[in-house]
């Protein structure tokens, strides 16, 4: 039996449906992420799991028990917010100990558990400090320690890294992964940051307009998006209008207006004449000089429209004859000159026959 079960849950605010008949299950010990744009329903769903809001329809089960009649303070669930929600007048240790005091534990037990929680987040030496004396990353770790101090069955994290700068955010991602492994508590994480979700999660539910569009492990979400929304929302992707010309067991032959035939991986539901898009990630597109021989079936000549040097890679935007702009990544790993092509250069872009995918309209 799954730890958490969301069964046909809906939540409406007047005419607006924030969560629309959503179902999924979260296993014990899992790092599960709700990912989607602002207003997709992920935070509303989190609030219902916490008990701050109630569903209009459906059920939420924890360890097989319906939570409908259990108030937030009686649920073995804690929430960590983006704002940290620390008490400014309490020390770090007092903030972490607060849930234990509310539960009426003995002073010796509170002291022991608080010390353990601070040690878990590497803040054992900061117990006497006040929140205003801490960095953003340290405040976040105090909030995590407070959320974990009485070992909840479930820890809910609502955009917990949103207030941190990029470098600190990356460091905290690693800390979150390690912390979750160490303490073994199930995490349900809400974010709109795709890279963060891909880096942290065991499984991701991609939400849009109150519904779950796709739920799977990160590599499947990124590499095999179920539809156009998921493909476009997760990472960068090239898309071009296409129609299925031939559907074979081992491949699809697509007709791309202004470009010609593109060979793509097969999909059982793609029949000849079906309209959609051919989608391919920039890192799957090779770029080379126009006259450089490339043994790939999908090869097209275009002109460098623009480029973006970002250190480890350069992103090239290439104009193709059909007016489509294709992004290609080139690693800057070779010694010497990092920039190989300039705007206006004629280049060839190519990709493998088994790269990319056809997605229905």
- Beta percentage is 35-45%
State the name of the first-level CATH class of the largest domain: Alpha Beta
Class from secondary-structure proportions: alpha+beta
Number of domains: 2
- The secondary-structure element order is EEEHEEEHHHEHEHEEHHEEEEEEEEEE
Write out the CATH superfamily name of the largest domain. Answer: P-loop containing nucleotide triphosphate hydrolases
Mean pLDDT: 91
Q: Choose one word for the global shape.
A: globular
Radius of gyration: 25 Å
Largest sheet: 6 strands, mixed
Portion of residues in helices?
A: 10-25%
> What is the correct CATH architecture of the largest domain?
3-Layer(aba) Sandwich
N-to-C span: 37 Å
Low-confidence stretches: none
Descriptive notes:
The protein is α+β, with helices and mostly antiparallel strands and 361 residues long. It is built from 8 helices and 20 strands. The strands form 4 sheets. The protein has a 6-stranded mixed sheet with strand order 6-7-8-3-9-10, sandwiched between helices. α2 crosses α3 (107-120), α2 (92-102) runs parallel beside α4 (136-148) and α3 (107-120) packs across α4. The two termini are 37 Å apart. The mean pLDDT is 91.
């Amino acid at each position: 039996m799954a730890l958490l079960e969301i069964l046909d849950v809906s939540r409406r605010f007047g005419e607006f449906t924030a969560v629309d008949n959503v179902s999924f299950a979260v296993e014990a010990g899992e790092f599960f992420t709700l990912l989607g744009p602002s207003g997709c329903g992920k935070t509303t769903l989190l609030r219902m799991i916490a008990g701050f809001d109630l569903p209009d329809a459906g059920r939420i089960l924890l360890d097989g028990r319906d939570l409908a009649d259990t108030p937030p303070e009686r649920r073995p669930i804690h929430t960590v917010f983006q704002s940290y929600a620390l008490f400014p007048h309490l020390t770090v240790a007092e903030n972490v100990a607060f849930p234990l005091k509310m539960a009426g534990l003995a002073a010796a037990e509170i002291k022991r558990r608080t010390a353990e929680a601070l040690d878990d987040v590497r803040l054992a030496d900061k117990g006497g400090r006040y929140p205003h004396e801490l960095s953003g990353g340290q405040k976040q770790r105090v909030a995590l320690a407070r959320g974990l101090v009485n070992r909840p069955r479930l820890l809910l994290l609502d955009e917990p890294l949103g207030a941190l700068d990029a470098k600190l955010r990356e460091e905290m991602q690693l800390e979150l992964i390690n912390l979750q492994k160490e303490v073994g508590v199930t995490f349900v994480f809400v974010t709109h940051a795709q890279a963060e979700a891909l880096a942290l999660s065991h499984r991701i539910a991609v939400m849009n307009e109150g519904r779950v569009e796709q739920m799977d492990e990160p590599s499947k979400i990124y590499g095999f998006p179920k539809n156009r929304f998921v493909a476009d929302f997760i990472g960068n992707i090239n898309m071009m209008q296409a129609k299925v010309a031939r559907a074979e067991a081992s491949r699809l032959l697509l007709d791309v207006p202004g470009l010609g035939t593109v060979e793509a991986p097969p999909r059982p539901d793609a029949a000849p004449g079906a309209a959609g898009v051919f989608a391919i990630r920039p890192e799957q597109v090779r770029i080379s000089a126009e006259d450089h021989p490339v043994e790939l079936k999908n090869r097209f000549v275009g002109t460098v429209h623009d480029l973006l040097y970002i250190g480890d890679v350069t992103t090239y935007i290439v104009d193709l004859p059909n007016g489509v702009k294709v992004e290609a990544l080139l690693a800057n790993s070779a010694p010497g000159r990092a920039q190989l092509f300039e705007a206006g250069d004629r280049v060839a872009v190519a990709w493998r026959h088994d790269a990319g995918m056809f997605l229905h309209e």
